[in-house]
Write a structure and sequence with these properties.
Chain B: InterPro entries: HypE, PurM-like_C_dom, PurM-like_C_sf, PurM-like_N, PurM-like_N_sf. The structure holds 2 protein chains of 2 kinds. By secondary structure, chain A is of the alpha/beta class. Chain A has 16 helices and 13 strands. Chain A has helices at about 5-10, 15-30, 45-50, 55-60, 80-90, 110-115, 130-135, 155-165, 180-190, 200-210, 215-220, 230-245, 265-275, 305-310, 325-330, 365-370; strands at about 35-45, 65-70, 95-100, 120-125, 140-150, 170-175, 195-200, 225, 250-255, 275-280, 285, 290, 295. The chains are: A alpha/beta, B alpha+beta. The interface between A and B is large, with 47 and 35 residues. One iron/sulfur cluster (SF4) binds near residues 342, 352 and 364 of chain A.
Chain lengths: ~375, ~325
C-alpha cells in the first residue's frame, strides 16, 4: 500500500473548520427538537471516536450518547476466554488470536498471564498469518481463536478457504464471531434503554450491507444512520439524525456512502455462508443468551472445529462477572462507565476487572483514557 | 585472521578465538588508548560531577530501517546521559551473542557503533563478550553503560514550573512504527525510518546558548505520552498540549489509522521533549534549529495548574481530552 493511500484513510475527515461548522449546524438545528436525542452508537469504534475527539463537548445538551454492545472483546463471556486458556495450555499448541483479546480476564487468568507462564500465545495482525505459523510448525496444533463482528468474519472465512485448499491439517478454529442485529434487537426488546436513534457501524455494513439495519426504524421508531469512524463522519451522521427528527422522518440512511451499499459485499457473505452458520445459543457477557447471535462452523468442517475436537477439555459452565462490575448494564445502554463503583479505582486498563475496561473500543476504557474534561 | 562465517561457542571460550574476536573486531573499531591498555578495569579521569547510566538492548529485528541494535545501543546510552545535561565520555559495551550468529552482521553492528560514537565523541573503554548456546538469547543482546560529565545541573522531571513551554525536538513515533513494520512484515511505507540518533550535539547547542532547562527527556518506550504523563505527575502540574502542533510523519499517522494506534504512544530513539521557562523558549528553538536532527523542533504546549498530574490535549476545533499513559503492550485494534 502506498503512502498516498494511507493518507487517504484520514485526510480530509478531521478538518477543524468543517468540524466546527458541523457542530454549529447541529446546535442550530436541535433548537426545535421536542425531546432529548439518545443516540446509541452500537459500535465501540464510534464510542472511541466520540471520546477521543471530544465530540460531545461540541454538541448541545439535548444530544446524549448511549454506548452499545458493539465491541467483540467486551461481549466475550468469561467461559469463552477460559476455553482459549484451556486450548493454549494443551501440550504442543500455539494459540492465535487478535489484539486486545490477550488481556481480557477469564474466570481465573488471562491469555497474557498464560503467555507469561510459558504458553505459546500470539496476537496476529492479519488472520492469514495463521497459515504461515501452521506450516512452520507441522508438529504442533495451531488453534485460531477467532473473534469479531461481521467485519472480521470474512477474514476467518478466507483463512478457512486457504486451509482447505492447501490441505493444512494442524490448524483448528474456535469460532466466536458475533452478529450486530440480534444484539440490538435484544437490547431494544428489553425495553429499558431510552434509545431514540442509532448510529450503525459502517465497517459491519461494508460486508453485510446496510440492509441489516433496515428493519430497525420501523420496529423501534428510531432512525438509523450508518456512519464512518472519523469525527466528521460521526458529526455528519448526527446531523442526519437531527434532520430526520425535525422532519418527522424515521429511516435508515447511509452516511458512509464511500463504501457502504445496501447489499454489501455479496462475495464475502457467500464465503462466510459456505463455512459458517448461525449458532442456536451464544451468551453475551452481561446480556445473557441471545439466540442466533453468533456463528459456528458448519458440520462439514467439524475436522477444523476446535470446540468439537477438544470438547473434553473445554469448560461448559457459564461464568458471571465480578459482582461489582456493571459491564452488562453498560452494554445494555442503561448505565455509563462512571456509574460503576470501581471505575478508575479498583478497575483500570492495567488492571481491568471487566472487559469494557480492556479493549480500546470498550466504553470504560474510552472514558478512562480520554475522560470527560 | 580469515573471518569465520558464524560466531561459535569457542569465540567466547577465552582462548585464541576469543582473542582474535576482541583484537580484530572490537579493538579495531573501538580503538582508543584506555581500551587498548587492556587492563582489568579502565582507568578514567573526570573533573566534574558525573552522570552514570546503563541499558540493555534486545531489539528485534536487530536490523531495521534507519539503524541497527548497535547504533541503538550507543545512541540510547549517550542520550540518557545527554538528557541529564551530561557530556558523554566513557562507555562500556557487553555483547551476548547467540552461537551461530553471522560474523558479518556482527561486524556491521560494531562498525555502526563506532560510527555513532563520533556524534558525541564518547569512547568505549571496556567491554565483555559472551557467546551462549543457540536459543539462549535471541541473536544478539548488547548492554552499554556510560559516564558523562555534567555540564548543566538541575534538570529534573520534578522541576517543571507553571508557564514553562513544552518543546518537542522532532516528529514523534517513528522508531516504534518502523520496528512494528519490520517485525510484522507489514510491507507498508518503504521510506519510514527510525529516528535513531545521538542527541548530545542538540543538548550542547542548548547549553551553549545558555537556555534554562527545567526538564528534558528522550521519548523512548511509551513515547511522548509517557514522558508528558511522568512529568505532570512528578511535578504535580498540568500539561496543556495543542494536538495540531505535534509533528507526526504521514506514514506513521497512516499506520496508526490502520491499526488503531496513537503516534504519541510509539517509541522514539532520537526525539526528546524539553520544558523551558517561557522567556527562553525562542532561544531554545533557535539553538535546536542549528542541529540537523532537531531542526524540526517545535513548541507543543505549556505548563499550567488546570488539572494537576494530567496531560490535556486540545484539538484544533475546540474540544479537549486527556492524553493518557499508553498501555503496556501495543496491540492492534480488532477491526
Ligand atoms: S468490531 Fe466492528 S462493530 Fe465492533 S467495535 Fe470494532 S468496528 Fe465496531
Ligand atoms: S469500570 Fe471496570 S468493573 Fe466497572 S463496568 Fe467498567 S469494566 Fe466493569
Amino acid at each position: 500500500m502506498s503512502e498516498l493511500q494511507l493518507k487517504d484513510l484520514y485526510d480530509g475527515f478531521r478538518d477543524p473548520d468543517v468540524i466546527k461548522a458541523l457542530a454549529k449546524t447541529i446546535t442550530d438545528e436541535t433548537k426545535n427538537l421536542k425531546e432529548t436525542l439518545n443516540i446509541m452508537e452500537v459500535c465501540g469504534g464510534h464510542t472511541h471516536t466520540i471520546m477521543k475527539y471530544g465530540l460531545k463537548q461540541l454538541l448541545p445538551h439535548n444530544i446524549d450518547f448511549i454506548h452499545g454492545p458493539g465491541c467483540p472483546v467486551c461481549i466475550m463471556p468469561k467461559e469463552r476466554i477460559d476455553h482459549a486458556i484451556a486450548l493454549a495450555q494443551m501440550e504442543d499448541t500455539i494459540l492465535l488470536t487478535l489484539g486486545d483479546m490477550i488481556r481480557v480476564p477469564g474466570s481465573k487468568s488471562s491469555l497474557a498471564v498464560e503467555r507469561a507462564n510459558g504458553c505459546d500465545i500470539r496476537a496476529l495482525y492479519s488472520p492469514l498469518d495463521a497459515i504461515k505459523i501452521a506450516l512452520e510448525n507441522p508438529d504442533k496444533k495451531v488453534v485460531f481463536f477467532a473473534i469479531g463482528f461481521e467485519t472480521t468474519t470474512p477474514m476467518t472465512a478466507a483463512l478457512l478457504e486457504q486451509v482447505e485448499k492447501q490441505g493444512i491439517t494442524n490448524l483448528y478454529f474456535h469460532i466466536n464471531h458475533v452478529l450486530v442485529p440480534p444484539a440490538v434487537d435484544a437490547i431494544m426488546a428489553d425495553g429499558q434503554a431510552k434509545i431514540n436513534a442509532f448510529i450503525g457501524p459502517a465497517h459491519v455494513s461494508v460486508i453485510s450491507g446496510a440492509k441489516i439495519y433496515q428493519p430497525l426504524p420501523e420496529k423501534y421508531g428510531a432512525p438509523v444512520v450508518v456512519s464512518g469512524f472519523e469525527p466528521i463522519d460521526v458529526l455528519q451522521s448526527i446531523l442526519m439524525i437531527v434532520r430526520q427528527k425535525n422532519e418527522e422522518r424515521c429511516e435508515m440512511e447511509i452516511q458512509y456512502s464511500r463504501s457502504v451499499t445496501l447489499e454489501g459485499n455479496i462475495k464475502a457473505q457467500e464465503m462466510i455462508a459456505k463455512f459458517m452458520e448461525p449458532r442456536k445459543h451464544f451468551r453475551w457477557r452481561g446480556i445473557g443468551d441471545i439466540p442466533d447471535s453468533a456463528l459456528e462452523l458448519r458440520e462439514e468442517y467439524a475436522a477444523y472445529d476446535a470446540e468439537k475436537i477438544f470438547a473434553d477439555i473445554l469448560p461448559t459452565e457459564p461464568i458471571d462477572d465480578h459482582k461489582l462490575c456493571i459491564c452488562g448494564t453498560i452494554l445494555k445502554g442503561l448505565a455509563k462507565p462512571n456509574n460503576c463503583q470501581v471505575f478508575g479505582t479498583a478497575c483500570t486498563p492495567n488492571n481491568p476487572m471487566g472487559s469494557c475496561m480492556v479493549s480500546a473500543e470498550g466504553a470504560c476504557n474510552a472514558y478512562y483514557r480520554y475522560g470527560e474534561i | 585472521m580469515t573471518s569465520p562465517k558464524q560466531i561459535q561457542l569457542s569465540h567466547g571460550g577465552g582462548g585464541e578465538e576469543t582473542n582474535s574476536l576482541i583484537h580484530d573486531l572490537f579493538y579495531h573499531y573501538f580503538s582508543n588508548d584506555t581500551l587498548l591498555a587492556a587492563e582489568d578495569a579502565a582507568v578514567l579521569e573526570v573533573k566534574k560531577k558525573i552522570a552514570f547510566t546503563t541499558d540493555s538492548f534486545t531489539v528485534s529485528p536487530i536490523f531495521f530501517n534507519g539503524g541497527n541494535i548497535g547504533k541503538l545501543a550507543i545512541a540510547g546510552t549517550v542520550n540518557d546521559l545527554a538528557m541529564m545535561g551530561a557530556k558523554p565520555l566513557y562507555l562500556s559495551a557487553s555483547f551476548m551473542i547467540e552461537e551461530g550468529f553471522s560474523f558479518d552482521d556482527l561486524k556491521t553492528i560494531v562498525k555502526a557503533m563506532a560510527e555513532e560514537l563520533k556524534h558525541s565523541g564518547a569512547k568505549i573503554v571496556c567491554g565483555d563478550t559472551k557467546v551462549v548456546p543457540k536459543g539462549a538469547v535471541d541473536k544478539l543482546f548488547i548492554n552499554t553503560s556510560g559516564i558523562g560529565e555534567i555540564e548543566k545541573e538541575g534538570i529534573s522531571a520534578n522541576h517543571l514550573q507553571e508557564g514553562d513551554i513544552i518543546i518537542v525536538s522532532g516528529d514523534v513515533g517513528r522508531h516504534g512504527a518502523a520496528i512494528l513494520m519490520e517485525r510484522e512484515g507489514l510491507g507498508i511505507s518503504g521510506d519510514l525510518k527510525s529516528d535513531c540518533a545521538t542527541l548530545w550535539p542538540a543538548v550542547q547547542a542548548l547549553i551553549d546558548a545558555n537556555v534554562s532547562i527545567s526538564a528534558m527527556r528522550d521519548a523512548t518506550r511509551g513515547g511522548l505520552s509517557a514522558v508528558l504523563n511522568e512529568w505532570a505527575e512528578q511535578s504535580a502540574v498540568c500539561l496543556e498540549i495543542k494536538e495540531s502542533n505535534i509533528p507526526v510523519d504521514q506514514a506513521v499517522q497512516g499506520i496508526c489509522e490502520l491499526f488503531g494506534f496513537e503516534a504519541f504512544d510509539f517509541a522514539n530513539e532520537g526525539t526528546f521533549i524539553l520544558s523551558v521557562p517561557e522567556k527562553d523558549a525562542q532561544m531554545a528553538l533557535a539553538a535546536l534549529h542549528t542541529v540537523e536532527v532537531t531542526k524540526k523542533a517545535t513548541m507543543i504546549g505549556q505548563v499550567s495548574r488546570k488539572k494537576e498530574g494530567r496531560v490535556i490535549l486540545h484539538s484544533a476545533y475546540g474540544s479537549s481530552r486527556y492524553l493518557d499513559l499508553p498501555k503496556g503492550e501495543l496491540l492492534p485494534r480488532i477491526c
